[in-house]
Amino acid sequence: MIEFQAVTKRYPDGTVAVDSLDLTVEDGRITVFVGPSGCGKTTSLRMINRMIDPTSGTILLNGKDIRESDPPLLRRGIGYVIQHAGLFPHRTVLDNVATVPLLSGVDKRTARSRAAELMELVGLPSTMAKRYPAQLSGGQQQRVGVARALAADPPVLLMDEPFSAVDPIVRDDLQQQLLRLQSELDKTIVFVTHDIDEAIKLGDRVAVFRVGGRLAQYDSPSALLAKPADDFVSSFVGRDRGYRALGFLTATGIPVGEVATVRAGDAPERAREALVDGWAVVVDEQNRPLGWVSADLLSTMDKSVDTEALVSGGSLFEVDSSAGGTAGSLRNALDAALSSPAAVGIAVDGTGAVVGGVTADTVLSALADARSSGEVPG
Amino acid sequence: MNIDWPWPWLERNLDDIAEATGQHLYLALLPVLVGLVISVPLGWAASRWRLARGILVPLAGVLYTIPSLALITLVPLALGTKIIDPLNVQVPLAIYTIALLVRSVSDALRAVPGDVIAAATAIGYRPVRQFLSVELPLAVPVIIAGLRVAVVSAMSLTAVGALVGIGGLGQLITEGFLRNNGVELVVAIVLIVVIALLIDALLLLAGRVITPWTRAGRGVKA
To answer: I need a labelling partner for A334 at 20 to 30 A (CA). Which of A29, A42, A149, B142 fits?
Structure first.
């Protein structure tokens, strides 16, 4: 547990970077510090490993004042990942990852074998071990940065805008990986970002900072979206927050209706009989959706339902089922309905097979139920 | 001037030439080594503190502009050494080396990326180990470049030492003039140039061997 107690950082020129911060970071969770530039989020992060010392106030790590620790020793017990990874350009990938164990006095062979395990954990092929950082892409470098931070198995991980310098697709990938790693490792992670979407996606708890180093709100992502503390937070959380809040409500239990399906290769006349409201989902042998077909489209097909000519479907959403899938959210369900050409969202099970369809109305009434049962803060 | 077919003279004087060459190397390289060792902490100080940089870098520039002959004749006065002490040449050479390298070391250290230094600190390096195993290695390519200039200029400046009676290949040049021996003159000059180029090439090679990462090309991706 990391506790900030009335922590203030004031620079000699009078700038207040962090203003009387009181905040507790829970163990085994991802806590995100988010805010515009100049809000003190990075300063707050860097005070945890004594890269910056506070002007006043106390920071406790597991109940112990961090000022009592020798900074280098304290830092070896706290993993650190920064923007652009900050890898050592003169060391191979393997030796970069092995750095902290080596510093802590582990012998070279053990440190390297540990580094190799870490590379595997973060999804880097062992063929990259002997490369230099300059030979890797930005996303790969960032993975090495994460592996390096984890190499000494520290209970705490500090991440300072680690994914902000990579392109959106790679960022999404790295975020997913972080969530996957966290589900295995249960680290206490403090993550700094200026991107509220990233904060909401990754954080178990999100601390919104405002300029001047004041904490504006410290809450769960869903509470942040549903009940912003003030105008600053609500404008920072941004547009579509009502829609985004749906992402925190599970779609488990929403009524899934029948959906018309036809099998690829069926005769067009047979398919025509199956249409509901002029549309049907075309599925493959395993009942997985391939796309939509309409009455108009069928009239252009002579022998069989042609999979090349289908209208591409909207997004899919997964219902919790015996096939062992993870349930989607109401946001997934609503998006599936809105993006479908037939206005029916396709629900699939864990194997990807079609189990039914939902309409936007169904999703909205599920939302209303959740509201009345108090699941959504109103 | 008389330039005979050189072999008979060369054969008679091979031992002397070898001795002069050895002397020349000792006179030139030792000060460069000492200068390098002194430049690293000075360059580090200049890279770290604005005040140190404000004093050291201009001072180095001024020192480098003092003519070598003047410096060589000033040293015995300043240090109280005898008039033919090798230190009279070696101290100025060390000074020139420092004048060249302080700036190189300082610039090289200042060019180490800030996020690399921040990462090293955040990971738990102590300052001295961080300097020796992160900052200094990354400064090596620029320091080697400065060292190459220092060595080549030390090789040629050492020849000036002959004017104040210090040995080395410069002595063959002055002797060649006095005895009107063109062969001796040419041999000495060629040796100085060739040895300087050889050492320069060796440094270049050594620099490449110890900095493999600088040639790790971009764009090799899996």
So the answer is: A29
Residues A106-140 have pLDDT tens digits of: 999 999 999 999 999 999 999 999 999 999 998 99
Please tell me which residue of chain A has the smallest CA distance to B138: A90
| A281 within some domain | yes
- Do A213 and A266 lie in one domain? The reply is no
Paired tokens of A225: 């979206």
Q: For residue A78, which of A154, A27, A145 has the smallest C-alpha distance?
A: A154
Domain of A357? 261-370
**Residue A342 is which amino acid?**
A
State the CATH number of the domain containing residue A286: 3.10.580.10
A211 and A172 in one domain? yes
Q: Are residues A266 and A186 in the same domain?
A: no
**Binary contact (B138, A140; C-beta < 8 A):** no
Pick among B115, B123, B215 to test the A interface (most A CBs inside 10 A):
B123
* Beta-carbon separation of B218 and A86 below 8 A: no
Token output for A357: 């369809």
DSSP per-residue codes, B81-135: --TT-THHHHHHHHHHHHHHHHHHHHHHHHTS-HHHHHHHHHHT--HHHHIIIII
Inter-chain residue contact B222 with A125, CB threshold 8 Å: yes
Over the stretch B158-183, which tens digit does the pLDDT of each residue have?
A: 888 887 778 888 888 888 888 888 88
Helix (H) or strand (E) holding A94: helix A93-97
Say yes or no for a CB contact (<8 Å) between A136 and B124.
Answer: no
Using CB atoms, which residue from A49, A74, A88 is nearest to B116?
A88
Span A155-178, average pLDDT: 90
End residue of a domain, out of A196, A227, A248: A248
Q: Chain B residues with CB inside 8 Å of A158's CB? A: 122
Residue A326's pLDDT band, with cuts at 50, 70 and 90, is: low
What residues in chain B have their Cβ under 8 A from chain A's Cβ atoms? 113, 115-116, 118-126, 129, 134, 137-138, 211-213, 216-222
CATH number of B7-209: 1.10.3720.10
Closest CB from A51, A103, A131 relative to B216: A131
Of A201, A226, A248, the last residue of a domain is A248
Q: How sure is the predictor about B6, in pLDDT bands with cuts at 50, 70 and 90?
A: low
Residues 138-197 of A with CB under 8 A from B: 140, 145, 148, 158
A238 and A334 in a single domain? The answer is no
C-alpha closest to that of A228 among A214, A208, A252, A250: A208
The pLDDT, as a whole number, for residue B16 is 85
Is A359 in contact with A295 (CB distance < 8 Å)? no
Residues in chain B with CB shorter than 8 Å from the CB of A88 are 116, 119-120, 134
- Same domain for A243 and A267, yes or no, is no
Q: What is the pLDDT of residues A49-91, one digit of tens each?
A: 999 999 999 999 999 999 999 999 999 999 999 988 899 999 9
* Residues A141 and A211 occupy one common structural domain: yes
> So where are chain B's domains?
7-209
Global ipTM = 0.79
Across residues A21-45, what is the average pLDDT?
94
**Residue A250: what are its φ and ψ, rounded to 5°?**
-75, 145
Predicted local confidence at residue A325, as pLDDT: 58
Please indicate, yes or no, if residue A254 is contained in any of the structural domains: no
Strand order in the sheet with A205-210: A78-82, A156-160, A188-193, A30-34, A205-210, A214-219
Nearest CA in chain B to A48: B122
